[in-house]
Amino acid sequence: MKTPVIALNLKTYKEAAGYKAEKLAVMAKELANRSDKHVIVCPQNPELAYLARKYASEKNFSVYGQHVDAEKQGAFTGSIVPETLRDAGAKGSLLNHAEKKVGLETVEKTIARAKEAGIELIVCADSVQEAIAIAKFRPPCIAVEPPELIGKGVSISTAKPDAILKCVKEIKTIDPAIVVLVGAGVSTAEDVRKSRELGAEGVLLASAFAKNKSPRTLLEQMLQQL
Q1: CB of 191 closer than 8 Å to CB of 157
Q2: Domain range annotation of the chain
Q3: Residues in Cβ contact with 86 at an 8 Å cutoff, skipping those fewer than 6 apart
């Protein structure tokens, strides 16, 4: 995964559905390609294949899924398997988000399956302890997101700076190649700056971008501080 990185989770917000998702993705792509930073957009499933196929080749911009399952290709109705994401043009997926928890056993299996299929994962952890446990499975990226801060407008870099320092230290001790992102409450360029100072290689955010009245301005400011 190219770093530093801003990952933008569009969740299922009405402000980021349908043509609005493409509008946000195009804007994010333009700003990413003007910089030397990496921007990832995670759209809703109905928009995923269209956006991934159309914009997958951009050097500083990637499209990821919001979730992926550990099942193989076959008779698994409703599952989102790694090969399907890959063939749709997606570079990777979120996994184990606080709103889509799957448990450590499934995390381990899905990381292995993603490696088989050649896609990347941003595996979310809700605590330092969970992040350390996940790091032992060697995913490409871990995003630390305390659920009590998600959508609250108070960044983890302000509320729990020691947690970032500990996470970065512990994860890098296990595997220096794992990219460490922070999320939950990240909503300003200052939050990005503080996160980087604390050792994170990027941020994961959602509502602050997707529901923002001026998402371009916000992303421009964040990229300047990344």
Answers
A1: yes
A2: 5-225
A3: 117, 118, 119
* Overall average pLDDT of the 21-34 stretch: 95
Is this prediction's pTM over 0.85?
yes
Residue 165 CA to chain centroid, in angstroms?
Answer: 19
Q: What pLDDT, in 10s, does the model give residues 136-171? A: 999 999 999 876 545 555 555 566 677 788 888 999
50-107 pLDDT, tens digit per residue, is 999 988 767 899 999 999 999 999 999 999 999 999 999 999 999 999 999 999 999 9
CA-to-CA distance for 37 and 25, rounded, in angstroms? 15
| Class of the domain covering 5-225 | alpha beta
**CA-CA distance, 122 to 5, in Å (whole number)?**
11
| Burial of residue 172 (number of CB atoms within 10 Å: 0-12, 13-18, 19+) | middle
Q: Summarize pLDDT for 5-23 with one digit per residue, the tens.
A: 999 999 999 999 999 999 9
Give the Cα separation of 166 and 162 in Å (integer): 6
Residues annotated catalytic, as ranges:
97, 145
Q: What's the pLDDT at 180? A: 95
